[in-house]
């Protein structure tokens, strides 16, 4: 299995409403579109460039952290917070060791995450459906309708069993956790690590995708939520899935779409 496929599977398994952007420093923005191949997003263009459709101004949530690791076989050990000796001014470094019991293990830690979502999905959906019905928008297309921008990303993937990586962290601000935003990690030693992003700054590792499709061959087009786009049961008639689809009935998006990428809508504020 490729590293790209492995990470994309792990991301979608842990956060079903999101897909991985690989490499995580690939520039993506809301309104980008392309294809989804086995949960891997293949970028083609942006709706504004290709069709003259502006995705509008996004909304953003408060900063948060996102962490996950493979379900089994990954252990993280930290040795205290970052400290500063006020008498000597010399850093006292924090350390972390990440151990993988098996190959293809993933450790993902993103700090300072800001979720941005499209403000008016209902209007966008109608415009894309118009393109779809005029055979200008392919049924295979997916469009980026939310992104997570990250201040600092630490991401490690093991190549072999019993792999490990040891990190040292320092910061201009004391009393931070090793993986806090603002902490800078460096590698002390590693073994059996396939890929690593160490304190990668200003990345977009996670994206939310939407898609237009029909329930039946001659059915009306619907705008599918992100977690249904890459699922294995996209064609089912499950009512729990149906209630999470935007059926353009003239109601507001908030009234018809209750699975926003951000759980607390009260935290949403215009940029």
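^ structure tokens above, recovered residues below v
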């Amino acid at each position: 299995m490729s590293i790209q496929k492995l990470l994309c599977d792990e991301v979608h398994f842990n956060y079903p409403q999101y897909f991985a952007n690989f490499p995580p420093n690939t520039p993506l923005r809301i309104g980008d579109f392309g294809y989804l191949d086995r949960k891997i997003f293949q970028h083609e263009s942006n709706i504004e460039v290709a069709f003259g459709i502006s995705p509008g101004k996004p909304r953003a949530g408060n900063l948060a952290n996102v962490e996950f690791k493979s379900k089994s076989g990954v252990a993280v050990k930290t040795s205290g917070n970052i400290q500063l000796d006020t008498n000597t001014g010399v850093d006292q470094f924090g350390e972390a060791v990440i151990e993988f019991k098996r190959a293809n293990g993933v450790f993902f830690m993103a700090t300072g995450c800001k979720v941005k979502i499209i403000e008016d999905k209902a209007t966008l959906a109608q415009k894309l459906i118009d393109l779809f019905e005029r055979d200008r928008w392919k049924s295979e297309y997916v469009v980026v309708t939310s992104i997570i921008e990250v201040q600092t990303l630490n991401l490690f993937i093991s190549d072999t069993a019993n792999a490990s990586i040891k990190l040292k962290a320092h910061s201009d601000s004391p009393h931070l956790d090793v993986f806090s935003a603002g902490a800078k990690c460096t590698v002390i030693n590693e073994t059996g690590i396939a890929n690593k992003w160490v304190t990668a700054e200003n990345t977009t590792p996670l994206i939310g995708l939407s898609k237009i499709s029909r329930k039946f061959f001659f059915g009306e087009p619907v705008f599918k939520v992100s977690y249904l786009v890459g699922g294995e049961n996209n064609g089912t008639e499950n009512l729990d899935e149906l209630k999470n689809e935007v059926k353009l009935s003239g109601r507001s998006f908030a009234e018809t779409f209750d699975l926003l990428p951000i759980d607390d809508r009260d935290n949403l504020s215009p940029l």
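The chain has one domain: 3-270.
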